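Database export, one record per block. Field names are fixed; values are copied verbatim from the stored entry.
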Amino acid sequence: MAIDVASGFRLEWPITEDLVTLRAAVRAFGTGAGLADRRLTDLVIAASEAAAKVLEHGGHGFLIAWSDPGGVSLEIVDATGVLTMAYLTVDPDPDPLAGRGVAFWLMRQLCDEISLDGSDGITRLHLRFHYRVRRNGDRRLPV
């Protein structure tokens, strides 16, 4: 299933314990935005990991997804502001068996850009996936 995002549609989804439904919504959005294969999977995994981190740290909020000619963006809004820059500055090579730092390391591997803004007490984690143009220039494709 795909969501038609050509008209500038923005998906907004609450972050709840039902991550399966959130992943399905993000997958449908990503498909409609033109992502496929590995890049679509990257989008879904990054969204799920980010939402799980919000829940793990007692937060609540929502996910916003949109696309533009340059790519697809996700903004994970943590209304309680529990996520901080400290989470993005974790060990560059975490031990997956240690259980800490792996989610943000993984998000950094999957996304082309990642940033965090908590200037107003609400944390906004921005994840970006770029498009590239085919040689014939007729279609957007994920990198």
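Remark 1: The longest strand covers residues 123-133.
Remark 2: The radius of gyration is 15 Å.
End of record.
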